[in-house]
Amino acid sequence: MEQLKETPLFGRHLERNALMAPFGGWNMPIQYEGILAEHRWCREKAALFDVCHMGEFFYRGDFAAGGLENVFTFSVASIPKGKSRYGFLLNEQGGVIDDLIVFRLAEDGAMIVVNAATADNDFAVIRSRLKGGADFVDGSAETGKLDPQGPLAREVVTGLLGPEIASIPYFRFITMDILGVKAIVSRTGYTGEMGYEIFLPADRTAELWDILLKDPRVKPAGLGARDLLRLEMGYSLYGNDIDETITPLEAGLEAFVDFGKEFIGKDALLRQREAGRKRSKVAFRVGSRRSPRHHHGIWSGDRRVGVTTSGGFSPMLGCGIGLGLVSPEAAAAGTELTVRHENVSMQATVCGLPFYQGGSVRK
Questions:
Q1: pLDDT in tens, 150-165
Q2: Angle of CA points 207, 211, 217, to nearest 5°
Q3: Nearest to 262 by CA among 74, 123, 95, 85
Q4: Environment class of 117 (CB within 10 Å of its CB; exposed 0-12, middle 13-18, buried 19+)
Q5: Helix, strand, or coil here: 202?
Q6: Nearest 10 degrees: CA dihedral of 356, 334, 299, 353?
Q7: pTM above 0.85?
Q8: Residue 52: helix, strand or coil by DSSP?
């Protein structure tokens, strides 16, 4: 049996009677008082997520000479200091090894934030592609991460940690002292709501967690609510909507690929773009409260055209929603589809993203 890792907040989750379950090799809280209640709290107030399972790598050196500039689908050197950028680490076939965010810490420094389940492999792959002369370390074990998210997050975090946080633009960050230690506060998140990602030493994470939860506007939320929140925005989940067999072009994420630079997997993507995709990302709404699930088949008439990659019930829309990969001709907005699994059948209609358009993410 796999030995699950625990975040510095494991004891706090048990104290609140959280439902715990394996996720990416970690024992993580799925819910506290309930997924729907926590989802609503994040949409209306401020929810606090334990995201200490994510991986953080630190690079110091010349980006071009050290090889980091050609590792990802975007330029690291062109990221302004104090800003972050989303993109991909690809294999030779153009498949997604991981999706990640790079934070430009200094002229010669960057932090790379990766998914928990892929962290060890990511580090090995990135290191294998670097040249000599650069310092590249895995700081995941020493780094904690808390995500206060929701329309009241700015008011809460600014009041507790300092007024300078209020002016951080979207996908930018500042370095500041929190609890007497150096921390990074970033205007990013995975919920579609106004929020922050706070990186600080792992051994101070529990103290900050306690302080934030003293505010009655803040409640803890688990991975169940986080998954619903990201799905309503149409955000991709690694392992479902993207993986090593799915390219960014197929996943509808070409905007995060800079074809003006070199990176491993570029040639494969260029060939795919020239030949045309055999499958495309699709978003669809179900005409009922039924929930499509991962691996449910997608049909057009009597022909199977694809598969559901993510799905669930949207509390904000009051119906089932899903993402999938289908034949390109079945991906046009307004196309009528059927989602099937065993004896279950759901009528669905292709729609645009995000599903939920009332989020406060850019406010």
A1: 999 999 999 999 999 9
A2: 145
A3: 74
A4: middle
A5: helix
A6: -30
A7: yes
A8: coil
What pLDDT, on a 0 to 100 scale, did the predictor assign at position 1? 56
Kind and range of the H or E element at 78?
none
Residue 277 CB partners (closer than 8 Å, separation 6+): 249, 250, 328
Mean pLDDT of 82-97: 98
In CATH, the number for domain 10-51+141-232 is 3.30.1360.120
- Kindly list the distances between the CA atom of residue 121 and the CA atoms of 110, 138, 268, 343, in Å, as whole numbers in the listed order: 19, 12, 21, 39
Name the residue with tokens 């972050």. 84
Determine the pLDDT at residue 310: 98
Identify any residues that bridge with 313 across adjacent strands, giving them in sequence order: 320
Asked, as a colleague might, if the bond just before 354 is cis with ω within 30 of 0, I would say yes
Residue type present at position 211:
I
CA distance 310 to 353: 14
b or e along 230-250 (b: 16 or more beta carbons within 10 Å of the residue's beta carbon)?
bbbbbbbbbebbbbbebbbbb
Q: What would the pLDDT profile of 49-84 be if each residue is shown by its tens digit?
A: 999 999 999 999 999 999 999 999 999 999 999 999
Closest C-alpha to 96, from 76, 67, 118, 70:
118
* Residue bearing tokens 């003293």: 214
d(CA 158, CA 137): 31
DSSP summary character for residue 17: T
Alpha helices in the chain (DSSP H): 10-15, 35-44, 119-129, 153-161, 205-213, 223-233, 266-275
**Side-chain half-sphere CA neighbours of 323 within 13 A:** 24
Query: Domain spans of the chain?
Result: 10-51+141-232, 278-353
User: What confidence tier does 133 reach under pLDDT thresholds 50, 70, 90?
Assistant: confident
Q: Which CATH superfamily is domain 278-353 in?
A: Aminomethyltransferase beta-barrel domains (2.40.30.110)
Question: Nearest Cα to 152, choosing from 215, 224, 223?
Answer: 215
Task: Convert 227-238 into a string of H (helix), E (strand) and C (coil).
Answer: HHHHHHHCCCCE
Look at residue 39 and tell me whether its pLDDT is greater than 70.
yes
